[in-house]
Amino acid sequence: MELASTRAVMDALEARGYAGCARFVGGAIRNSLLNQPVDDIDIATTLTPDQVTEALEAAGLKALPTGVDHGTVTAISAGRPYEITTLRRDVTTDGRRAAVAFTQNWEEDAVRRDFRLNALYADAEGRIYDPTGEGVADARAGRIVFVGDAMTRIREDYLRILRFFRFQAWYGRGEADPTALAACKALKGMLSGRAAERTQKELLKLLAAPDPRAALRLMAATSVLSAVLPQVKALTRFENLVTIETDQLFELDAELRLASLLPDDAKVAQDTAERLRLSNSLKDRLIAAAGREPRIVSWMSPRETRRAVYRLGVRTFTDRVRLAWAASDRPAAGTQWRSLLPLAETWTPPAFPLTGEEVIAAGVPKGPLVGQVMREVEDWWVDLDFIDDKLAAVERLKAVVQGMVY
């Protein structure tokens, strides 16, 4: 956190307030303690949002009012964003959002945070402040423990249930905190109707952990998983997929992991995507991955593989191979499955040699019949393993047209 851009933000705030009026908070401190990469740098301050804006602008930095009602201003320094939030205490909460009041008290601000390892602060000189007295120890031991009473913290924001399992997947080690598990289980019913965008964001972040298997098992055991994804009937394929990614050194894929949790049913995939308000691209991917035709098996010949890649596209074919591999009886013995992937990834599907205009020129009237004839000739062309002979395709077209009954 010694970047010049970071120092510029802290200097600006302290110039408007006083030394120590701003501290780094949360994930940046936690990850620094664990020698893990720091992605986002959040700052807490005793300055009000108006004072923060004045301080940044006086220093020539850009200030964006990204959440002023809740005390948050985003600074842009050397093109990098820094979320700066005034110390707060909750006045009222409804399980989704809170009405807050600003405070000058660091302990009050810490009490409203979710987990003790996130309620950590550090000043510009690197001195760490641990208001709960357990945050540093929790981070180093891999304990995910709510600040204060777990039920109270969850009632402030019910999506903290999913956050608990996300942090368990990313930072937890050993047995999960039993008090936290009990609270998540007791309040799981309140996840229904929560903001879909936040729900899917938490879920995908959880699935993006290097190894989220233990966390998913806990979610299943507490019935939290069924509250979020009622379509999930078993974890076997998901767990096998994570194993395959690890053993084969594949890049982990949170989206495909989500697909592995769902049954091979395009309607279920579509309903899930719509309920979670997934992006159109992810929705299309889940639906395509759930398809059953053509059937994908480990003993596909190169010719059958090319045919499937042509029909499905590279990504969908690859998705279905990995899902079928994870669902197989012996996922650890994956040599045959693995061999399907290089061909799919390196083969360039050829373009179908005929056009609609050529079909019309052969005597097919304009309209739906043109597409029907093209598909019939294309099926023949694919069956011949994409024969590179346009004349043969033209002759096949003539034969199809001659055999048509209008």
CATH hierarchy class name of the largest domain: Alpha Beta
Provide the gyration radius in Å.
28 Å
Mean pLDDT: 93
Please give the domain count.
Answer: 4
Oligomer: single chain
Beta-strand percent range: 5-15%
Please count the beta strands (DSSP E, at least 2 residues each).
9
Looking at CATH, which topology of the largest domain would you report?
Beta Polymerase, domain 2
Broad structural category? alpha+beta
The strands making up the biggest β-sheet line up spatially as 3-4-5-2-1-8-9
- Helix/strand order: HEHEHEEEEEHEEHHHHHHHHHHHHHHHHH
Number of helices: 21
User: What would CATH call the homologous superfamily of the largest domain?
Assistant: Beta Polymerase, domain 2
Helix content percent band? 40-55%
Shape by Cα distribution: elongated
Distance between the termini: 75 Å
Which runs of at least 5 residues are low in confidence (pLDDT < 50)? Answer: none
Largest sheet, in brief, is:
7 strands, mixed
Please state the second-level CATH architecture of the largest domain.
Answer: 2-Layer Sandwich
Topology summary:
Layout: H1 4-16, E1 22-25, H2 27-33, E2 42-45, H3 49-58, E3 62-67, E4 72-77, E5 80-86, E6 88-93, E7 98-102, H4 106-111, E8 121-122, E9 128-129, H5 135-141, H6 150-156, H7 160-171, H8 178-186, H9 196-207, H10 213-221, H11 224-228, H12 236-247, H13 254-261, H14 266-275, H15 280-289, H16 302-312, H17 314-327, H18 335-346, H19 356-361, H20 368-383, H21 390-402
Parallel strand pairs: 2-5
Antiparallel strand pairs: 1-2, 1-8, 3-4, 4-5, 6-7, 8-9
